[in-house]
Design goal:
The protein has 17 helices and 20 strands. The chain has helices at about 15-20, 55-65, 115-125, 145, 195-200, 200-205, 250-260, 275-280, 310-320, 325-330, 345-350, 365-375, 390-410, 425-430, 450-460, 470-485, 485-505, and strands at about 35-40, 70-75, 80, 85-90, 95-100, 160-165, 170, 215-220, 225-230, 240-245, 265, 285-295, 335, 385-390, 415-420, 440, 445, 505-520, 525, 540.
């Protein structure tokens, strides 16, 4: 999600923060017990909360509360389990027959049917709707007609989607994709009610979903209020009265509010507070592995950064970064130096390789300086690393990375940080290709498959390929991996594709990120899922 991405990003002006806490009654509201409301830090999403148009973490948190899909990822293990899907059947990894469970409705009372999924997927795929996650429907037959790479669309619906009856639909893919069912827990594949189409503006102002919470109100720059939906039919009913997501433009302020008793939950402890969190919060501090990797991406769309032999430049920059020192001194055991482009939460069977990057990810100032020179040097002599400045964490580590590069190259002007005020503004610059140098590109997995760490980020024209990296051999291997029906062989082929990415140094892997959070003594049963997102529905108010 991803886009912290991925990916995977936790981001109230001070005045707003003070206003919010002043009226918050010491954190949440609604009293205690099952009706108590939990207050949590948050950042405004980049886009309106359409499931197929949300590929960043802040919007994803809301979608995870207000929608349920065919699959749901277990909050402890990440395993893809049937949720609204009664069954997903296929004999050839190309044609799938999906049966939707009976008894599910949206919060407005409308029944969730097979058509709720088919219409939503067709909307998400259509070129005219300009959905950022359209690419996720790219393997469904007819995608090239509804979302051509050039020119106008020649169809309005995906030929590979067919509604059989009220609870059944079929999906025909354009090639074999053995793990396709496991992707269906991602928010882009969520069902949508008729209100989404009949009153689109109204729906955007107050989204209607089928999850355990319903949106009550949203004021951009201030907060979103979600209330428990008592009619929710699923087994994961909310154990609190609702969640109030408060917008913070500085998560140091959020942390101060938490320790002062004015906020219940902070789900991204700022770097400057990591050394204090355990003593400040005791057992209410969470530090747990998550499917998150932080990288530095390159603007391959800029001719200055897309020249022959620049893989040496990029590899040299990677070797100029002292990951071990930075993770130990800044992140206090909440980050681990990266040795591949995935995450340890996948495990070896899932494709994680702790030696894949090899020497290219080891700190070696002498070799770094040599390779940077052989790669033509840094374009213009100085490079900027752009990042969103609304979390204290990014400024600290970007400065540390630049300092390391500058020391390695013997040039105090080789690298400098370039802050952008808010996450939303930052993402807009990234997605509109307005950057002329490297940029922060963290990724939070959408689903626990090696494919999700590689294809959305590095496949040509993929949905989250913000740097416009492209390599035909990488693309070919990804296609082969997706077509492989044997899961072990598929993983091995994805690893081969990752080695192509390594040889190009298509992005610099920095470190794997733990999920870090802290909560007040007003709430309990707080946990982060493998995506580093709070399991909001299980939180209890004392």
């Amino acid at each position: 999600m991803r886009g912290v991405t991925h990916a995977k990003w936790a981001v109230l002006a001070t005045a707003v923060a003070l206003a919010a806490t002043a009226c918050g009654g010491g954190g949440g509201s609604g009293g205690g017990g099952a009706n108590g409301v939990v207050s949590s830090s948050w950042g405004d999403p980049q886009n309106p909360l359409e499931p197929a148009n949300t590929n960043e973490v802040q919007g994803g948190k809301v979608l995870d509360m207000i929608f349920r899909g065919l699959k749901r990822y277990d909050p402890k293990t990440g395993e893809a389990k049937n949720w609204l899907a009664e069954s997903i059947e296929s004999s050839d990894s190309t044609n799938f027959r999906i049966t939707v469970k009976d008894g599910w409705t949206f919060s407005n009372g409308e029944k969730v049917t097979a058509k709720s999924f088919v219409d939503a997927w067709n909307y998400g795929a259509a070129l005219k709707n300009n959905q950022r996650n359209a690419y996720f429907f790219g393997y469904i037959d007819g995608y090239d007609k509804v979302h051509p790479s050039g020119g106008a669309a020649s169809a309005t619906t995906l030929s590979g989607l067919k509604t059989v009856d009220e609870r059944t639909f079929t999906v025909k893919l354009s090639q074999k994709f053995s793990t396709f069912p496991d992707t269906l827990g991602y928010a882009a594949f969520a069902p949508l009610p008729r209100a989404f189409y009949d009153d689109h503006a109204g729906w955007l102002a107050k989204p209607i979903g089928n999850g355990p919470y319903a949106v009550d109100s949203y004021t951009k720059g201030s907060q979103m209020v979600l209330k428990r939906w008592d009619g929710y039919p699923g087994p994961d009913k909310a154990h609190n009265g609702g969640i109030t997501l408060r917008v913070y433009t500085d998560n140091n302020t959020a942390y101060t509010d938490l320790t002062a008793g004015n906020l219940d939950l902070v789900d991204d402890i700022p770097a400057a507070q990591l050394k204090n969190a355990a003593s400040d919060l005791g057992s209410r501090y969470i530090n747990t592995p998550a499917g998150i990797i932080q990288t530095i991406a390159f603007p391959f769309y800029d001719p200055a950064w897309h020249k022959p032999h620049q893989e040496k430049l990029r590899t040299g920059l990677s070797m100029a970064i002292d990951r071990k020192q930075i993770t130990q001194t800044i992140f206090h055991h909440t980050r681990t130096p990266a040795q591949d482009w995935t995450s340890p939460v996948l495990g070896e069977k899932g494709g994680f390789r702790d030696d894949l990057c090899g020497s290219a990810c080891e700190y070696d100032p002498g070799q770094a300086k040599k390779l940077v020179a052989e790669g033509g040097g840094i374009p213009g002599g100085t490079m900027t690393i752009t990042y969103n400045a609304d979390t204290g964490s990014h400024r600290v580590w970007v400065d540390a990375v630049c300092n390391s590069i500058n020391r390695s190259l013997g040039n105090n002007r080789a690298c400098v940080g370039n802050p952008v005020g808010t996450f939303a503004d930052y993402r807009n610059k990234v997605t509109q290709h307005k950057l002329s140098g490297p940029f922060r590109a963290g990724w939070q997995m959408d689903y626990p498959l090696i494919q999700n760490f590689l294809q959305p980020l590095y496949y040509t024209n993929a949905s989250s390929n913000d740097g416009a990296y492209s390599n035909p051999e990488f693309d070919k291997l990804v296609d082969q991996a997706n077509a492989e029906t044997d899961r072990t062989k598929a993983v091995d082929t994805f690893v081969k594709a990752e080695k192509v990415l390594r040889d190009d140094m298509g992005a610099i892997p920095l470190w794997y990120q733990n999920g870090s959070a802290g909560y007040s003594d007003r709430i309990e049963n707080v946990a982060l899922n493998p995506f580093s997102v709070p399991v909001y529905d299980q939180i209890r108010v004392k």
